[in-house]
């Protein structure tokens, strides 16, 4: 546990005389043909999702590519058998009635006639999330989770989260060029306020209570929102999903985490391949990466209204960088279709003011004007 | 005038002849002293003898004369001795070594060329270099042994002890040579020597580097002893070459041994100005380290925990200060370091790869003195002196950092609250009880403390003590008994968050008793035998909450205990002048003892928590696991000529304690594990062969050694293994085996204006881990290079003396980069990119190359002055080369790109200035 920080002492010498420079070994671009299996049974909504992909060489700039056309199925130790079907390339999904009393196993047959499977896994029961809450500091907002298992049976936890936020563009558009004509915009159809969901969380959020006297998680930080980001400019919502994980899966994540934090000192733990619970049936010595797991999922959503934040965090994001422009009435017919105007100018109306379109249309930043179903 | 002179001489000669003819004696003497003979002659003739009683006191006269001319009798008596006689009128002068002329040198004038020059040129007595010798002891003949046991055709043994005149310390490795027969030995670690010679007259020469040679004329009557005090050589300012007996390299039986004395180590330029015993050792062939800032020695492909580091006979668990940048041995206290890489004799055991025997100096027996120094990192002070003059002496050495100062100079926010400090103390008392008994008590403590960024703090310390009693039973048998105690402990404290504050304590210790006997049977056989008993006790982890708010549960691992005992015997056999053999056998036995709970697993399945079936409880002192076996040791030397030899050795070693480490370098928080039900003892076998040659009258030593080694039952860890606070460590470790081989070339010149060594080593070291299931198998079960496999290594250590006061040293170190495991691929799992690693140790960091230089200025050379001082200016990494300390890869934040980085620790030249003093 303490060893992780050991390298910092070495820093003392580095700042005195050391140096860090980019380094690239000339590793031949070998075709790394390693299957990656990312499978999960969600016992709460009875869904199964398996993502198959192939690892790529570090020397290429490609991201990993999907393994398509595989035969994927999940079987239970009571003999029941569920086939999964491919939707998006490499993503295989299915639905089944999952019983926590059964053990499940994943089977994969790839197009190159190789067979892979996982160990039998237990479907773990996740205790409910006690609370999700936040604290503010001048640097931003930290979001925490508390939970406990009164049965003292969980010990290993993992969290993921989805986040959605409401945001507002700085200019309210009220006129628009439609079919070459200046038309008023229905205030109900205004694209001033949008809702945007971020990608699922990618941080490795795991915690073990095995060393604690009670199976309780207290103030585990799941996310941090730095001061001034769009997410906290209007209203923010985070849905924290809690998964009970096995000790083996915890170790697996720990290995991945250790590696991504490897700073390269001689006192760092030597890198090892994170060993999951999937393997090749065709060739036992073949390296297969990934994990197949299953559990119920406990979720809790909270909302953070910017007005509830301390004043020092209530800052409108500065990144819009809007430049205003005026369009005299005479030039209206030269103005492109869809141009928005937020105001008129002059005595009477000599023309209209416009600005960068993304400053008036929130959908251009990726959001939608319709609030998600869960939005309060 | 010329004629007159001639006449005078002629006349004189005639006279003396006349006198001789007129003086005949009758005598019957047997084993009479020379004084008795003189009395006899003076009573019968008018002759009078002039001689030095001391020089003739061991001359025995055995003669029968019946009215015989005195010169004939004298000739007979002195024939074959070192004495000469000269007769002048009625005076007889007995001189030693050279004849006294009773007439003027001849030819005195140019035209007297026809006269023949005597083979032995007599000179005037004042020329005799008596003044230079210490006292008159050199001319005295020492009678050794008992006259009653004298057998003129027999052999007898002379033994004794060689000590320093100034400090009273025994002198180790001094050469004792009989000048007539040219047989010789060198003094053992207690300064003792033993030499078998024919009875009669001999001249023994005692030589040691840095000491004035001593010559003793002896008359060996029977087995007896002779003690020698050697004075330190205060060399006159004019260069004088002092040569000691250097053919030991060729003649000794031992191979794979490197001895460094502190003088040599102090010349090696080092980073941050601290002379470092272990760093000097790493410049020797066959010794590697994984990186710049580590002190773990990898000897001939062995892991760092396979070295037996002994400081005055007590084992040292962690020899590193300050993350491993310095060793824990104070250079002012160390006398010598000996590294045994192969041909390890039966008296050593317990570690596979090497024995590093570090000896501290004994205190000065004659006068109180102090020495010390200051470098950018530490201050040192050593005080020594007699407690009872010539009998008891003490030595205390202290070294400490003032490096919080250095830390404070670093303007990095994250290090503002960091602290690091260390100290070490060495103390010993040496007491000579009497001629035959002496006692050495030694204690040693090193301690380190550091706290990084105000959260986790580390403390670790070594505590060692030993008492050694040396007893001489008689001139053929001596022995010693040593009791030692070593403990290593560390504590990790986390105070970052009151809710998770903790203290974690760990300790490993051993108590050892050993008795060793050496018996000199004759020049052909020297037997040694001994017993050793060792008790290990470990407290392998104790985690406790700290503070009332802490929610950390206390987690205590059961203590571990074990007993290791050994019995050994060895014989050094001089088969012939060219062949010497050492044959030894050690039997070691090991018991892992209760009280302890041992988990049982389903037989035939992998040891995993899920396969645990039972917990077996063993009571206090119950044997849980029992191991043992023979450890044969064998060495052979075949002498090809006076300055060349061939040597071969084989040794098997067993090791019952292993270090668990999943980092490249040793860290203070590594875990030691005793062999138990599941973790078997390591067994190592090594064969080595070498060719040794001395050149230029033993000034240059050259050698080539080759070895091959196999290691069984070494342990590897599973991916992500938890090594600290693991109640069932057997589930996280794997059994592996290793092999290593290599060739070492060394050319060394230890004296002269230019001295130093050049070495080249080719060595390989591999490990193999085959588990029962694929995930437990590393690199498909093939041999893979160990983290310290560096095939090519080249070292140059050079020293040039401009004069007595100035000398310049230069090091050049090259080695192949160490193997690393690097990311070769990337994959996506749960939305994030992760790296995919190559085979273990498939790639290497760039090669290592460094040049260091130092310039040493000694104070003036007046013999009498208050303090001797010296300054050393050293530049480490003169070329400022960026040597890879490590290579690592980081995934860029918010992108899928993985970038490689190389970290260099000493990436620019580092100058340091060190001041040393002695008074």
Question: What is the fold's blueprint, element by element?
Answer:
The complex is a heterodimer of chains A (376) and B (919).
Chain A: H1 7-17, E1 19-22, E2 35-42, E3 47-54, E4 56-57, E5 65-66, E6 71-76, E7 81-86, E8 91-95, E9 103-109, E10 115-118, E11 121-122, E12 129-137, E13 140-148, E14 156-168, E15 175-178, E16 181-184, E17 193-197, E18 205-208, E19 216-226, E20 235-244, H2 247-260, E21 278-280, E22 288-295, E23 297-305, E24 325-328, E25 340-341, E26 343-345, E27 351-354
Parallel strand pairs in A: 2-22
Antiparallel strand pairs in A: 2-3, 3-5, 3-8, 6-7, 6-9, 7-8, 9-10, 9-11, 10-21, 12-13, 13-19, 14-17, 14-18, 14-20, 15-16, 15-25, 20-23, 24-27, 26-27
Chain B: H1 2-22, E1 24-33, H2 34-44, E2 48-50, H3 53-56, E3 60-69, H4 70-78, E4 83-88, E5 91-96, E6 141-144, E7 155-164, E8 175-178, E9 184-186, E10 192-198, E11 200-207, E12 214-220, E13 224-225, E14 228-230, H5 248-251, E15 257-261, H6 262-267, H7 277-281, E16 287-288, E17 298-299, E18 307-311, E19 314-315, E20 320-321, E21 326-327, E22 334-340, E23 354-360, E24 369-374, E25 378-388, E26 392-401, H8 404-408, E27 419-434, E28 437-452, E29 456-472, E30 477-494, E31 502-520, E32 525-545, E33 555-556, E34 560-574, E35 579-593, E36 596-601, E37 612-618, E38 623-641, E39 644-655, E40 657-660, E41 671-674, E42 682-695, E43 700-717, E44 733-749, E45 754-769, E46 784-785, E47 792-801, E48 806-815, E49 819-820, E50 823-829, E51 832-837, E52 843-844, E53 848-858, E54 868-876, E55 886-891, E56 898-904, E57 910-918
Parallel strand pairs in B: 2-5, 6-12, 7-13, 7-14, 18-23
Antiparallel strand pairs in B: 1-3, 4-5, 7-10, 8-9, 8-11, 11-12, 15-22, 16-17, 18-19, 20-21, 22-23, 24-25, 24-57, 25-26, 26-27, 27-28, 28-29, 29-30, 30-31, 31-32, 32-33, 32-34, 34-35, 35-38, 36-37, 38-39, 39-42, 40-41, 42-43, 43-44, 44-45, 45-46, 45-47, 47-48, 48-53, 49-52, 50-51, 53-54, 54-57, 55-56
């Amino acid at each position: 546990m303490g060893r992780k920080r050991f390298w910092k002492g070495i820093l003392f010498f580095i700042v005195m005389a050391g140096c860090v420079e980019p380094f690239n070994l000339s590793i031949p671009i070998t075709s790394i043909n390693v299957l990656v299996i990312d499978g999960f049974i969600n016992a709460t909504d009875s869904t199964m999702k398996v993502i198959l992909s192939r690892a790529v060489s570090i020397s290429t700039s490609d991201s990993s590519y999907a393994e398509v056309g595989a035969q994927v199925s999940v079987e239970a130790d009571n003999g029941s058998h569920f086939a999964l079907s491919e939707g998006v390339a490499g993503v295989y999904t299915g639905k089944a009635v999952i019983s926590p009393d059964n053990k499940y196993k994943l089977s994969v047959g790839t197009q190159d006639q190789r067979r892979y499977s996982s160990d039998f896994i237990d479907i773990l029961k996740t205790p409910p999330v006690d609370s999700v809450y936040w604290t503010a500091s001048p640097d931003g907002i930290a979001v925490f989770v508390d939970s406990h298992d009164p049965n003292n049976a969980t010990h290993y936890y993992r969290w993921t989260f989805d986040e959605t936020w409401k945001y507002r563009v700085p200019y309210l558009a009220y006129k628009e060029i439609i079919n070459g004509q200046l038309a008023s915009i229905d205030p109900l159809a205004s694209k001033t306020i949008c809702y945007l969901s971020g990608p699922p969380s990618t941080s490795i959020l795991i915690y073990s209570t095995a060393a604690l006297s009670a199976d309780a998680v207290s103030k585990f930080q799941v996310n941090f929102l730095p001061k001034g980001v769009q997410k906290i400019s209007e209203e923010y919502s985070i849905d924290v999903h809690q998964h009970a994980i096995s000790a083996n899966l915890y170790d697996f994540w720990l290995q991945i985490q250790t590696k991504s934090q490897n700073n390269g000192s001689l006192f760092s733990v030597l890198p090892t391949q994170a060993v999951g619970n999937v393997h090749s049936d065709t060739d036992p010595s073949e390296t297969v990466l990934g994990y197949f797991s299953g559990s119920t999922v406990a979720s809790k959503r909270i909302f953070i209204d910017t007005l509830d934040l301390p004043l020092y965090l209530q800052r409108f994001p500065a990144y819009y960088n809007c430049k205003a422009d005026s369009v005299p009435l005479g030039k209206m017919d030269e103005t492109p279709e869809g141009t928005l105007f937020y105001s008129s100018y002059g005595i009477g109306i000599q023309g209209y003011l416009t600005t960068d379109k993304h400053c008036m249309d929130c959908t251009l930043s990726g959001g939608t004007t319709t609030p998600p179903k869960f939005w309060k | 005038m010329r004629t007159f002179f001639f006449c005078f001489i002629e006349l004189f000669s005639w006279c003396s002849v006349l006198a001789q003819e007129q003086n005949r004696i009758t005598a019957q003497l047997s084993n009479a002293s020379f004084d008795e003979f003189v009395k006899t002659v003076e009573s019968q003739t008018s002759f009078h003898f002039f001689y030095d009683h001391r020089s003739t006191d061991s001359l025995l006269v055995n003669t029968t004369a019946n009215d015989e001319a005195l010169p004939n009798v004298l000739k007979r008596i002195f024939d074959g001795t070192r004495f000469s006689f000269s007769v002048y009128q009625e005076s007889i002068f007995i001189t030693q070594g050279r004849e006294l002329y009773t007439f003027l040198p001849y030819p005195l004038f140019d035209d007297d060329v026809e006269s023949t020059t005597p083979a032995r040129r007599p000179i005037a007595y004042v020329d005799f270099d008596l003044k230079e010798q210490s006292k008159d002891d050199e001319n005295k003949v020492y009678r050794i042994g008992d006259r009653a046991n004298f057998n003129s055709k027999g052999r007898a043994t002379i033994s004794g002890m060689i000590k320093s005149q100034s400090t009273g310390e025994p002198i180790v490795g001094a050469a004792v040579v009989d000048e007539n027969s040219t047989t010789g030995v060198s003094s053992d670690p207690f300064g003792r020597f033993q030499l078998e010679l024919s009875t009669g007259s001999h001249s023994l020469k005692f030589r040691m580097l840095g000491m004035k040679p001593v010559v003793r004329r002896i008359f060996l009557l029977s087995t007896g002893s002779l003690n020698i005090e050697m004075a330190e050589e205060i060399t006159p300012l004019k260069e004088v070459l002092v040569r000691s007996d250097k053919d030991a390299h060729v003649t000794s039986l031992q191979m794979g041994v490197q001895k460094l004395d502190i003088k040599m180590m102090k010349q090696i330029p080092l980073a941050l100005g601290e002379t470092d015993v272990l760093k000097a050792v790493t410049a020797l062939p066959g010794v590697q380290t994984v990186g710049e800032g580590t002190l773990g020695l990898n000897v001939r492909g062995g892991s760092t925990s396979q070295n037996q580091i002994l400081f005055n006979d007590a084992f040292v668990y962690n020899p590193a200060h300050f993350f491993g940048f310095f060793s824990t041995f104070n250079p002012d206290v160390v006398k010598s370091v000996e590294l045994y890489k192969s041909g390890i004799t039966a008296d050593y055991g317990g570690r596979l790869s090497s024995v590093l025997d570090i000896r501290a100096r004994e205190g000065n027996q004659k006068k109180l003195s102090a020495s010390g120094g200051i470098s950018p990192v530490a201050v040192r002070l050593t005080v020594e002196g007699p407690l009872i003059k010539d009998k008891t002496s003490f030595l205390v050495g202290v070294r400490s950092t003032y490096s919080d100062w250095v830390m404070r100079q670093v303007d990095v926010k994250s290090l503002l609250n960091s602290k690091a400090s260390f100290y070490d103390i060495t103390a010993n008392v040496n007491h000579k009880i009497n001629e035959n008994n002496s006692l050495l008590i030694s204690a040693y403590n090193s301690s380190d403390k550091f706290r990084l960024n105000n959260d986790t703090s580390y403390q670790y310390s070594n505590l060692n003590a030993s008492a050694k009693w040396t007893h001489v039973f008689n001139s053929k048998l001596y022995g010693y008994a040593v009791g030692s105690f070593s403990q290593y402990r560390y504590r990790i404290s986390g105070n970052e968050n009151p809710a998770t504050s903790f203290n974690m304590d760990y300790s490993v210790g051993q108590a050892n008793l050993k008795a060793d006997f050496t018996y000199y049977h004759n020049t052909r056989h020297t037997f040694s035998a001994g017993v050793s008993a060792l008790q290990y006790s470990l407290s392998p982890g104790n985690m406790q909450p700290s503070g009332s708010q802490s929610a950390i549960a206390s987690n205590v691992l059961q203590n571990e205990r074990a007993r290791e005992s050994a019995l050994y015997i060895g014989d050094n056999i001089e088969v012939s002048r060219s062949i010497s053999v050492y044959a030894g056998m050690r039997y070691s036995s090991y018991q892992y003892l209760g009280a302890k709970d041992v988990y049982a697993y389903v037989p035939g399945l992998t040891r995993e928590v899920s396969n645990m079936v039972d917990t077996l409880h063993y009571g206090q002192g119950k044997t849980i696991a029992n191991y043992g076996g023979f450890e044969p040791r064998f060495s052979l030397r075949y002498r090809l000529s006076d300055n060349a030899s061939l040597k071969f050795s084989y040794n098997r070693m067993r090791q019952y304690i292993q270090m668990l480490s999943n980092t490249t370098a040793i860290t203070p928080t590594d875990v030691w594990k005793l062999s138990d039900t599941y973790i078997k003892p390591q067994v190592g076998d090594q064969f080595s062969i070498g060719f040794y040659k001395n050149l230029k009258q033993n000034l240059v030593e050259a050698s080539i050694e080759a070895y091959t080694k196999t290691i069984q039952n070494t342990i590897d860890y599973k991916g992500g293994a938890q090594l600290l606070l693991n109640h069932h460590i057997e589930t996280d470790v794997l059994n592996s085996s290793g092999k290593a081989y290599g060739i070492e070339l060394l050319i060394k010149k230890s004296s002269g204006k230019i001295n130093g060594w050049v070495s080249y080593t080719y060595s390989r070291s591999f490990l193999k881990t085959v588990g029962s299931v694929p995930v437990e198998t590393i690199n498909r079960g093939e041999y893979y290079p160990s983290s310290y496999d560096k095939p090519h290594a080249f070292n140059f250590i050079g020293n040039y003396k401009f004069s007595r006061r100035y000398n310049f040293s230069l090091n050049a170190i090259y080695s192949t980069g160490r193997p690393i495991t690097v990311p070769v691929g990337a994959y996506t799992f749960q939305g994030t990119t992760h790296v995919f690693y190559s085979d273990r140790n498939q790639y290497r960091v760039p090669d290592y190359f460094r040049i260091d230089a130092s310039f040493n200025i000694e104070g003036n050379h007046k013999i009498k002055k208050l303090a001797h001082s010296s300054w050393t200016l050293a530049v480490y990494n003169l070329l400022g080369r960026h040597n890879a300390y490590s290579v690592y890869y980081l995934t860029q934040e918010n992108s899928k790109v993985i970038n490689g980085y190389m970290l260099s620790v000493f990436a620019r030249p580092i100058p340091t200035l060190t001041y040393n003093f002695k008074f």
